[in-house]
Amino acid sequence: MNEVKVSRFVCLVMTLFPALWGLFSFLNNLAGFSGTVQYAVAPLLSMQNTANNSWLMWRAIDAPWAGYVGLALITTVETLGGIFASLGLIIMVKNFNKSYILFSKGKAWAMLGASCAVLVWGVGFMVVAGDWFMAWQAKVNPLNTQMGAMIYALPCITAIIVLLAQKESQ
Fold first, then answer.
1. Taking burial as the number of CB atoms within 10 A of a residue's CB, which of 1, 24, 117, 163 is the most buried?
2. Cα–Cα distance between 77 and 27 in angstroms, integer?
3. Alpha-carbon gap, residue 48 to 62, rounded angstroms
4. b/e string for 40-66 if b means 16 or more Cβ within 10 A?
5. pLDDT for the residue 89
6. What tens digit of pLDDT does each residue of 124-163 get?
7. How many angstroms separate the CA atoms of 35 and 38, rounded?
8. What CA–CA distance (Å, rounded) separates 110 from 83?
9. Averaged pLDDT of the chain
10. Over pLDDT 70: what percentage of the chain?
């Protein structure tokens, strides 16, 4: 057993989370873009499932184009996360048996990809959708948005921590 190779393997495994989720999200969003806008993003932005508190409803965005712009932004950041993490994965695999300096170039791309994932699922869905657009007040399954986002964000946060913690003597 070689600690360096095992720690590098762990980096590869953890990078699969943002890489695959980002790429699969791209494919899923393209396959059902209009439906996702109509049934998920637009209702969230317009705050139609919340308690309708007049002190908070000024935040609602109910313009017909808002859902499309919102999902385009979400899809872009998810896809960038998948592309950057996949690039990092490829570079790490290519340099698996080479110097730490070369291997760590892949780690940097993977961390960038995982950061995009945390940005969209952690900050975007958990914080902005959850508290700015009051998703936690939904009449049915009130924490659904935030809990779902946490399922995506936590492994990506963990990937960042693992990638940052993995160090070798150069």
1. 117
2. 13
3. 9
4. bbbbbbbbebbeeeeeeeeebeeeeeb
5. 98
6. 999 999 999 999 998 888 889 999 999 999 999 999 999 9
7. 5
8. 9
9. 95
10. 99
Alpha-carbon gap, residue 107 to 97, rounded angstroms? 14
Average pLDDT over residues 105-120: 98
Return the half-sphere exposure (C-beta side, CA atoms, 13 A cut-off) of residue 136.
9
| Local structure of residue 134 (DSSP, 8 states) | -
Dihedral (CA of 95, 15, 12, 2) sign: positive
3-state secondary structure of 161: helix
pLDDT at 23 over 90: yes
61 touches 129 (CB < 8 A): no
In sequence order, the 6+-apart residues with CB closer than 8 A to the CB of 81 are 18, 21, 22, 113, 114, 115, 116, 117, 119, 120, 156
DSSP label of 64: T
What is the amino acid identity at position 120? V
Instruction: Supply φ then ψ for residue 26, to 5 degrees.
Output: -60, -50
The one-letter code for the residue type at 6 is V
Q: What angle do CA 45, 31, 142 make, to 5 degrees?
A: 35
pLDDT for the residue numbered 170: 62
